[in-house]
Amino acid sequence: MLLTLKKTIFYITLFTIFVLTLNPIGDGINTTISPNLANKTTLQTYPQHTTIENGTLSGYVTDTVQKPIADALIRVNYHGTYQEAYSNETGYYLVTNIPICYCLKNCTCTKTGYKNNSIFLAIDETTTHNFQLYPNEPYPVFEPLTPNGLNGWYITKVNVSFAYDPINVSEIWYDYTGWQLYTEKFLVDEQCGITINWYWIDQYGTQSPLSEFNLKIDYTPPYVKLGYESVNSHPLSGKDMILTADVWDNCGGGVDYVEFYLNDVLQFTDDAAPYEWIMTIPPSSCTLKVVAYDTAGNMGYDILNGTDIETKSQINQRLIPQQSSELETYQYTFNRR
Q1: DSSP state of 47
Q2: pLDDT, tens only, 194-222
Q3: What share of the chain in percent tops pLDDT 90?
Q4: Structural domains in the chain, sorted by start
Q5: Distance CA 119, CA 105 (A)
Q6: Is residue 93 within 8 Å of residue 62, measured between CB atoms?
Q7: Distance (Å, whole) CA 189 – CA 176
Q8: Is 178 left (phi over 0), alpha (psi -120 to 50) or beta?
Q9: pLDDT tens across 240-268, in order?
Q10: pTM for this entry
């Protein structure tokens, strides 16, 4: 019995020595035997760790109400160095040439006026991460983000919210139709120039100075009324007419310009009151249209069918040339304005 046990231990020891000879412990090498050779044993070695610098990190940077933050610095730190990129106007960023390895990378997002944000990430070829930055102090955010009309005007109602750090800010108060505690975004539907005052209180109870923001809102098209006066009537060429546009704008921005159309073809543009145009209406059926634009970009119009026009016996002599040659000259002058 004892002899059998000794023989077993002896053979186990020989087998262990044989295996260790083929694959020594701690050499850091993976070893495989090629199956393609019948009478030879060929060893192929591969390194256990490979570093490839084709990793990327991309995503968006926003504030606490999802407003894109431009020019934020995103930096990926690794092995004593880093790669970095800046976010664009949509908040999008892309950091490239990051090594792919087993270590976690310290990824940071910074911008002046905001608290830093950092996270450890494992980077591969298409890693994504969105950063949210908390502002040092609250500020209003508008929806749409920027005026969607012309000359700084909004031509829609505007939603207002506040971006803030809930740890540092206890309350925000605003004055629109009376002072109210801010709890969620609110709609500003009043038109023309609006000023809204607001302030905030920090976690220690300290109140900030009073602030304000201004909005210019005009979503009402200008009022337009097309008028006319008949000068002469020609059986072949038609009627010589003075077309007038009575235009009124809802807000103080005023009228920008007025266009006159014949059969939906632009004939004349006038950018100063009184808005007038002298033209000849053909004897066949036609459509007259006047279109007015205010400084915010709103458009109003009025349409008149040529068959509904009647010749007036009393006309404004100040606007009517006395001879046909003068009428042609007067019409040409209007068309060149």
Answers
A1: E
A2: 999 999 999 999 999 999 999 999 999 99
A3: 62
A4: 52-132 (2.60.40.1120), 139-217 (2.60.40), 223-335 (2.60.40.10)
A5: 8
A6: no
A7: 11
A8: left
A9: 888 899 999 988 678 999 999 989 999 99
A10: 0.68
